[in-house]
Design brief:
By secondary structure, the protein is mainly alpha-helical. It has helices at about 5-10, 10-20, 20-30, 35-60, 65-90, 100-110, 115-135, 145-150, 155-175, 175-200. α2 packs parallel to α10, α4 (about 35-60) packs antiparallel against α10 and α5 runs antiparallel to α9.
């Protein structure tokens, strides 16, 4: 089972997850600052839960995947520090209540503990791949947001996702039909949650809100 086959079978849903008015607003400079900052706080909360998810995944990973997943955990911990610095610069309060869309996504990650390793790893690849594609689509980004676009489109991040793809395909190659089916279902769920995360940030705003400034 090749992960690119999932992208092909669910092309429309994947497009919705990685091409969104939020991202177009980042690229053009039409995204209201309050919408971006709402998203930034919620993404910080999501990364906190993502760190726990990846730690649980590492605990059951085969030896061949441990270095890759450890590297991902180190990067996530550094990412949290970067978020905290951004929040200080913008006077944002990070100890917020998770939005229902965020809480549901985090609940999905927690539930992957009970899924086959191959399915959970596929979900991790999907959410990271969606993130990279989304921010690449927003490049180069309006000057207000360019730092963020550049931060989330580095070659190192792309290399990590390539490593996840290779590891997930190896796991799927060893998995049974049931686990492969669960992996595809997890992929679909991730795409839906990613789409919903962008939509969450635009609540109460116009799709083409006023220019930032």
């Amino acid at each position: 089972m090749k992960l690119r086959d999932l992208l092909a079978r669910h092309r429309e849903l994947w497009h919705e997850a990685t091409r969104h008015p939020f991202l177009e607003g980042v690229r053009r400079g039409t995204l209201p600052r309050r919408a971006f900052e709402r998203w930034l706080v919620q993404d910080y909360l999501f990364v906190l839960e993502g760190l726990k998810f990846q730690a649980r995944l590492l605990a059951r990973a085969p030896r061949r995947d441990q270095r890759l997943l450890i590297g991902g955990l180190v990067a996530l911990e550094e990412e949290l520090g970067w978020f905290e610095e951004q929040a200080r610069r913008r006077n944002l309060e990070l100890h917020a209540r998770p939005h229902p869309a965020n809480a549901a996504y985090c609940g999905f990650l927690a539930g992957l503990e009970g899924e086959p390793y191959a399915a959970a790893l596929t979900a991790l690849w999907a959410l990271e791949r969606a993130y990279l594609e989304a921010w690449r689509g927003a490049a180069p980004g309006h000057p207000e947001y360019r730092e963020f676009v550049e931060h989330w489109t580095t070659p190192e991040f792309a290399d990590y996702i390539s490593g996840l793809e290779e590891a997930a395909e190896a796991a799927l190659g060893e998995a049974g039909e049931g686990a492969r089916g669960r992996a595809e279902e997890a992929f679909v769920e991730v795409a839906r949650f990613e789409r919903g995360f962008w939509e969450m940030a635009l609540e109460g705003t116009e799709e083409n809100g006023g220019r930032v400034g």
